[in-house]
Amino acid sequence: MPNTKSAQKELRKGKKLNAYNKKIKDNFKSLVKKSRKAIESGDKSAQELVLKAHKALDKATQKGVIKKNTRDRKKSRLHHYLNKTAKKA
């Protein structure tokens, strides 16, 4: 339990910020999962979903939710998976 007014305010701010960050993270994580499923199933919309996931990752980085290198790694792995599956087909 916070002892001072400023500590109480920080607790409130922290809860708001956690909710905000969670919303953004859930969004890009779900897009990455959807695009991976689409790639596995050989769906035609896989390319579009990958681009949406890239956009969501870029926005998350821009808002400071994830770091730049994390974004780059996730984008790279997703694109690598897309290219690898495309070669097999």
Could you describe the 3D structure shown?
The structure is a single chain. The protein is an all-alpha fold. It has a single domain (5-88), classed as Ribosomal protein S20 (Methane Monooxygenase Hydroxylase, Chain G, domain 1). The protein has helices at residues 5-41, 46-62, 68-88. 16% of the residues are buried.
Keywords:
89 residues, mainly alpha, 0% strand, Methane Monooxygenase Hydroxylase, Chain G, domain 1, 3 helices
Draw up the topology in text:
Elements: H1 5-41, H2 46-62, H3 68-88
Briefly note the structural class of the backbone.
mainly alpha
Q: Give the name of the CATH superfamily.
A: Ribosomal protein S20
Using the coordinates above, name the CATH class.
Mainly Alpha
State the distance separating the first and last CA atoms.
58 Å
The CATH architecture can be given as Up-down Bundle
Query: What is the CATH topology assignment?
Result: Methane Monooxygenase Hydroxylase, Chain G, domain 1
Shape category:
elongated
Helix content: over 70%
In total, how many domains does the architecture comprise? 1
Question: How would you state the average pLDDT, rounded?
Answer: 94
Can you write the helix and strand succession as a string? HHH
Number of strands: 0
β-sheet strand percentage: under 5%
Number of H/I helices: 3
Biggest sheet, in brief?
A: none
Computed over alpha carbons, the radius of gyration is 18 Å
Multimeric state: single chain
Question: Which residue ranges are poorly predicted, with pLDDT under 50 across at least 5 consecutive positions?
Answer: none
